[in-house]
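Form P-L/3: holo structure prediction, ligand AR6.
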Amino acid sequence: MTHTEVILGDITKLKVDAIVNAANSGLAGGGGVDGAIHRAAGKELYDECMRFPDSPMGRCPAGECVITGAGRLHCKNVIHTVGPIYSGKPSDALLLSNCYRNCLITATKSGLKSIAFSCISTGVYGYPKLEAARIAVDTVQEVIPRVPIINSVFFVCFDDENYTIYKKLLPPPV
Ligand code: AR6
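OUTPUT (holo model):
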């Protein structure tokens, strides 16, 4: 049985195998959780990101992910995924779901057992938080039986609104 937990706090402080960054397709860092991760990890992480080949879709298109080391962070790896910029179109949900799915698959391929997700797309990219949380929880619950190596999944909320939403969607076991 996979341990699933909602956490309120800063993802850069976690000692898990992988933390998931809400990146942009250029992988060059930015604001929000991306900025916090790059600041805490240091230049090594940035340099590693820049080694991914650039293309007209960037280094990582929306819905996909790449894995790097973690520089000065406490985790083993950072998985950088790029959420959709919210547009209200049906494709948003598919792309957001793909982020969670691809991160779990990538973690498994790297032998990682614990993974902490940030609330992808719910900041600068403007995804409505409740909708995004439902997609996150539903996708993880759907994929987790197929990735049995992963024994712990953390949903890391940085703001009270996301925390309240996730706590309702994932009540503690009684
Ligand atoms: N730990 C955990 N969660 C955090 C942290 C933190 N230290 N800081 C912010 N969050 P955002 P996006 C939460 O904007 O919407 C960047 O500039 C935040 O409260 O970081 O996917 C990238 O470079 C929110 O719930 O990511 C892209 O250009 C969540 O992280 C763009 O923003 C995601 O907010 C990506 O936008």
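COMMENT: Residues 91-109 form the longest helix (19 residues).
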